[in-house]
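Operator note (shift B, R.M.): manual run for Redox-sensing transcriptional repressor Rex requested after the automated queue skipped it. Running by hand, logging everything below so the morning shift can see what happened. Input copied straight from the record, untouched. If output looks odd, do not overwrite the archive copy; leave it for review.
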Amino acid sequence: MNIDQSKIPQATAKRLPLYYRFLKNLHSSGKQRVSSAELSDAVKVDSATIRRDFSYFGALGKKGYGYNVNYLLSFFRKTLDQDEMTKVSLIGVGNLGTAFLHYNFLKNNNTVISIAFDIDEEKIGSEIGGVPVYGLDHLEAELPDDVTVAILTVPAQVAQSITDRLIKKGIKGILNFTPARLSVPDEIRIHHIDLAVELQSLVYFLKHYPNE
Ligand code: ATP
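Run finished. Output pasted below as returned.
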């Protein structure tokens, strides 16, 4: 099962966690195999795309049999580094940040928020959802070298300067929940999730394309 990961297209890679979550559920309910049609129905990705995606993983479904759940699961576990715990930092312990600290990411994947930063004296020194909160002044000193991912839930106007510091400290990926568009070097990966925009876009689509 030696698959060259650089050959997996990015769009396919993005769907991996989705497939993984569903297959884990199937596995715990005792299912040994699954068809692309069943998968398609559950994860809402058309079955041709699923078949193409899975062919990159070396998983070739058999007609009338489908895919072997165990094979796929062990592939996903390996590819998504599920045997290894990924520690993540969170900057900005406001409403959204606090919710993330309480959220159990381990339910669905092997990531955990291990450290948080804020500037609010009331929060600094406390533990929220079992995660210690440090002052942002101590970012460089306290952020461990093995933490290379950060979740950004600070006010937009401070997002860029914090991002610059995070990158200097060795952060490689940022999940940006602020509305700020961040400028970063090419090798840094930013995933931007603007909840307000997503919500507005949903409402717009419901209004203007109600039947699609
Ligand atoms: P949210 O946007 O998550 O609902 P909120 O409305 O509670 O949060 P915001 O003003 O957006 O509050 O701030 C989010 C958090 O970021 C707060 O806990 C605030 O103390 C913190 N914060 C503000 N400025 C900075 C900064 N420069 N560095 C780190 N944290 C900051």
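Quick read of the result: The helical segments are 10-28, 36-43, 47-56, 69-79, 95-102, 139-142, 156-168, 195-208. The chain has a mean pLDDT of 89.
Leaving this for review. - R.M.
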